[in-house]
């Protein structure tokens, strides 16, 4: 049994590595990646870890745990590259998938399954589904908080379910989950508690055990997660007070509630079209919960039934909660992905066990889906012929594999659950590689905005190995100038730009520059992606 578990772990780990790591260092930083990496690097540079800072200015929009973890990775590897920063997110989500497999195999054993008779696919079901969920893939290849945060919340929520509902260790359930919830708070504020209680509260109501919220076990859990958070919060408040970071967090919450970062139409599309795409193909298996035979199977297996109820509350209430806030991005609900994973694992497991596949899946997935894929592929090739861009040869190899797979499935009359699962896994795998082999080289050729800008600024500055920033902190640009390529070793931030340092270069945002600067100094205009900057020689 131990050898089987070790082998399963190795297979899942290797699958995650192969799925996530290739090409992740090719594209330059985007979104919040530069900010996260820059804070971690400045922690190492200044040996100041308690208070996250950007050029001596405290940054409290997010607590520091992710920055600590990323700084630790940089310290251990001695490598600050995009690959290492993003690989950390990949590693975290692979760990989350291994944890889900651990929970699943414990539930299988508890439900009476003979573990040595189970196939490797059956054991790895939730891990493979988790790793191949498009929303998870998207966060696994970014150096952002979401992958690390999702790992913590997934462990917190399902460690409670395992210890409380499977092992009946109530104190351990709340304390262990409390530790990871506390770490979640230290990663992304008190939002971490939302996921836990969106699953726990309705589950206890459904089970008619709501009084448990007043139990000593629950209070121990509260003390635990507040205690973990307080270790940092008290230390910070002794230095600068408690107000700065609580004010920053409240402003973050209000920003999401008021939709300051996105319009309602963008929000609506995110939680309809993009949610459907982001959680497909595994979302499709929720149709099974209308299947009487499958529902009968659940009701005859109390552990599976409880797992389904708990997971449905986690996923659906998280979706509804975030849908209600117009500023909530789709990635905000990613920590609830574990709920969907188990909701889709259960019907697939049932069909594999029965070696039976309902007609709706045989038609929609084994006939309609490959046909639609082939049509989309043909349309894409027609579109590609009009582009002034020639993809790398490896892209065409994956295109060929994609076409062959869909043609093969369309021609053959597959009807087994294993066939449908293998087909969906392979489709997601190929689509991911089609994306990175097409878009990443294109990005390098056409959209290398910050890398190119870094070299342009270095050329203008020449032998003057220092740069001043006037009331602007372009995170990605600083990363490439100072840390990745080491073009300008000294970069300083100016709060007051009324008096410019003599014989230096100062970077302004176009909207911040006084008109007199154009008269008194030499100015170089810089277009960096969508923003206009001006490099001033004093």
Which key features would you list for this structure?
alpha/beta; glycosyltransferase; 538 residues; transmembrane; 3 domains; LipidA_mod_glycosyltrf_83; transmembrane helix; 6% strand; two-stranded antiparallel ribbon; RgtA/B/C-like
The side-by-side strand order for the widest beta sheet comes to 4-3-5-7-6
Helical/strand content category: alpha/beta
| DSSP helix fraction | 55-70%
State the major sheet. Answer: 5 strands, mixed
Separation, N- and C-terminal Cα atoms: 71 Å
Low-confidence parts: none
Order of helices and strands: HHEEHHHHHHHHHHHHHHHHHHEHEEHEE
By DSSP, the count of extended strands is 7
- Summarize model confidence as the mean pLDDT: 93
Share of β-strand residues = 5-15%
Characterize the overall form: globular
Radius of gyration: 26 Å
Structure overview:
By secondary structure, the chain is α/β, with parallel strands linked by helices. It has helices at residues 2-20, 33-46, 65-77, 82-110, 120-131, 134-140, 145-166, 170-188, 191-206, 216-240, 243-257, 264-270, 273-278, 292-299, 302-323, 337-354, 359-385, 393-411, 417-446, 449-461, 475-484, 516-520; strands at residues 53-54, 57-58, 466-470, 490-494, 505-509, 522-528, 531-537. It has 22 helices and 7 strands. Helix 21 (475-484) links the parallel strand 3 (466-470) and strand 4. The chain is globular and about 80 Å long. The termini are far apart. The mean pLDDT is 93. Residues 61-232 form the Glycosyltransferase RgtA/B/C/D-like domain.
Give a brief outline of the structure:
This protein has helices at residues 2-20, 33-46, 65-77, 82-110, 120-131, 134-140, 145-166, 170-188, 191-206, 216-240, 243-257, 264-270, 273-278, 292-299, 302-323, 337-354, 359-385, 393-411, 417-446, 449-461, 475-484, 516-520; strands spanning 53-54, 57-58, 466-470, 490-494, 505-509, 522-528, 531-537. By secondary structure, the protein is an alpha/beta fold. The radius of gyration is 26 Å and the shape is globular.
């Amino acid at each position: 049994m131990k050898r089987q578990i070790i082998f399963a772990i190795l297979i899942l780990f290797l699958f995650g590595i192969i799925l996530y790591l290739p090409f992740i260092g090719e594209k330059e930083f985007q979104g919040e990646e530069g900010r996260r990496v820059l804070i971690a690097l400045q922690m190492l540079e200044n040996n100041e870890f308690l208070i996250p800072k950007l050029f001596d200015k405290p940054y409290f929009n997010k607590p520091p745990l992710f920055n600590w973890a990323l700084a630790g990775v940089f310290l251990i590897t001695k490598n600050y590259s995009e690959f290492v920063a993003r690989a950390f997110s990949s590693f975290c989500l692979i760990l989350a998938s291994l944890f889900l497999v651990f929970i699943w195999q414990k539930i299988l054993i508890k439900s009476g399954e003979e573990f040595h008779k189970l196939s490797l696919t059956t054991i790895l079901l939730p891990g493979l589904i988790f790793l191949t969920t498009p929303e998870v893939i998207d966060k696994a290849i970014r150096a952002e908080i979401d992958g690390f945060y999702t790992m913590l919340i997934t462990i917190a929520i399902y460690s409670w379910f395992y210890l409380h509902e499977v092992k009946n260790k109530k104190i351990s359930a709340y304390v262990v989950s409390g530790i990871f919830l506390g770490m979640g708070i230290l990663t992304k504020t008190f939002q971490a508690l939302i996921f836990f209680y969106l699953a726990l509260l309705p589950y206890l109501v459904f089970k008619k055990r709501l009084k448990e919220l007043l139990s000593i076990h629950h209070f121990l859990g509260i003390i635990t997660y507040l205690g973990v958070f307080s270790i940092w919060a008290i230390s910070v408040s002794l230095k600068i007070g408690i107000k700065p970071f609580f004010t920053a967090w409240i402003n973050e919450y209000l920003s999401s509630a008021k939709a300051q970062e996105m319009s309602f139409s963008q929000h609506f599309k995110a939680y309809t079209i993009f949610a459907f795409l982001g959680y497909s193909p595994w979302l499709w298996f929720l149709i099974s919960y209308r299947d009487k035979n499958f529902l009968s199977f659940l009701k005859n297996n109390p552990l599976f039934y409880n797992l389904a109820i708990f997971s449905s509350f986690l996923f659906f209430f998280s979706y509804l909660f975030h849908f209600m806030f117009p500023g909530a991005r789709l990635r905000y609900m990613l920590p609830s992905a574990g709920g969907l994973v188990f909701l889709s694992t259960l019907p697939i497991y049932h069909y594999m066990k029965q070696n039976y596949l309902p007609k709706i899946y045989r038609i929609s997935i084994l006939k309609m889906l490959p046909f639609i894929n082939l049509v989309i592929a043909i349309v894409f090739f027609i579109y590609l012929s009009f582009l002034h861009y020639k993809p790398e040869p490896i892209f065409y190899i994956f295109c060929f594999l994609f076409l062959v797979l869909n043609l093969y499935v369309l021609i053959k009359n597959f009807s087994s659950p294993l066939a449908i699962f293998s087909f969906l896994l392979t489709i997601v795998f190929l689509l991911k590689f089609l994306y990175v082999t097409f878009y990443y080289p294109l990005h390098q050729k056409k959209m290398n905005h910050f890398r190119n800008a870094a070299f342009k600024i270095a050329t203008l500055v020449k032998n003057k190995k220092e740069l001043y920033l006037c009331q602007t902190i372009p995170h990605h640009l600083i990363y490439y100038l100072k840390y990745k390529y080491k073009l300008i070793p000294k970069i300083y931030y100016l709060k007051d730009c009324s008096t410019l340092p003599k014989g230096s270069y100062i970077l302004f945002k176009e909207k911040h520059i006084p008109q007199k600067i154009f008269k008194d100094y030499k100015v170089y205009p810089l277009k960096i992606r969508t923003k206009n900057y001006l490099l001033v020689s004093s």
